UniProtKB/TrEMBL annotation:
Family: Belongs to the ABC-2 integral membrane protein family.
Lineage: Bacteria, Bacillati, Actinomycetota, Actinomycetes, Streptosporangiales
Protein name (Swiss-Prot/TrEMBL): Transport permease protein
PANTHER family given in the database record: NODULATION PROTEIN J
Transmembrane region(s): 49-69, 81-103, 124-151, 157-179, 186-208, 246-264
Presence of the UniProt keyword Manganese in the record: no
Species of origin: Actinomadura nitritigenes
Keyword Cell membrane: yes
């Protein structure tokens, strides 16, 4: 006698939830996306690339290979390399950022970005990450050229990183302050003028001890002078956490960021 197997119940249909779930992209992802855009814009901009990378490398190579300047005793590249690193930070964090942000403000780019889900704090964070990324690229290229010219750095790398971060904060604060308070054309002229002046009197390629004592005491308080001197103390003389340069940079960073936060206008 055969029996018919019992019928198995049919599986219940799977219900898919196809209802829309709108929502903003996570903030870290938005910041990284905007930072990537900012970085690519700098790298693709020929004028920015000239300012941030080519000029520092040309100055390093020219003055290291020739005796056009009296740089005192010791190898020329040992004096020049830290100053050129300081110049690279200033060119990106101050000059390039001031000019770029100033024209973004003029053409309404900042206003449009302010209407997107990316908050203004996120935009500043993205710009900061972009500046740091460009500075890393600059440091790699400048150090590679300096090493090829015979540079032998030594010292505490943590001290170097702290100096570079404080220098970036100081220059970024005043770059954003300039971009957020002046017209774009005025920012362009002023940022380039400051770049040239600080290149000449900031101890980047001209030793400050060539200036009279009273003038030298004032010039040592400039952020570019403090950054260049601090990097030389670490990379040339092996000093760990040079006190005066760090203090000067910390004061400039606090003042610049506070003033930028207070007076920056987005439109």
């Amino acid at each position: 006698m055969t029996t018919t197997p019992a019928a198995t119940p049919a599986a219940a249909p799977v219900e898919l939830d196809l209802s829309p779930a709108p929502g903003a992209v996570p903030l870290p992802r938005m910041i990284l996306s905007q930072a990537g855009y900012e970085f690519r814009a700098v790298v693709r901009n020929g004028e920015q690339l000239l300012l941030t990378l080519i000029i520092p490398v040309v100055l390093l190579t020219l003055f290291s290979a020739t005796s056009l300047l009296d740089l005192g005793s010791g190898r020329r590249v040992d004096f020049l390399a830290p100053g050129i690193l300081a110049l690279a930070v200033m060119s990106t964090a101050f000059t390039g950022q001031a000019i770029g942000t100033g024209f973004e403000r003029r053409y309404g780019v900042l206003k449009r970005l302010g209407a997107t889900p990316l908050p203004r704090g996120g935009l500043i964070a993205a710009k900061t990450l972009s500046v740091v990324a460009v500075e890393i690229l600059q440091a790699v290229v400048v150090c590679a050229v300096a090493l090829a010219l015979g540079w032998h750095p030594h010292g505490d790398p943590v001290s170097v990183v702290v100096l570079l971060l404080l220098g970036t904060a100081a220059f970024s604060g005043f770059g954003l302050l300039m971009a957020g308070t002046l017209r774009a054309e005025a920012t362009l002229a002023a940022a380039n003028l400051v770049y040239i002046l600080l290149l000449a009197v900031g101890g980047v390629v001209f030793p400050l001890d060539k200036f009279p004592g009273a003038v030298r005491d004032v010039l040592e308080l400039l952020p570019i002078s403090a950054l260049a001197d601090g990097l030389r103390q670490v990379l040339q003389h092996g000093v760990a956490f040079p006190g005066k340069p760090l203090l000067v940079l910390a004061v400039w960073a606090a003042a610049g960021l506070a003033l930028a936060a207070r007076f920056f206008r987005w439109e």
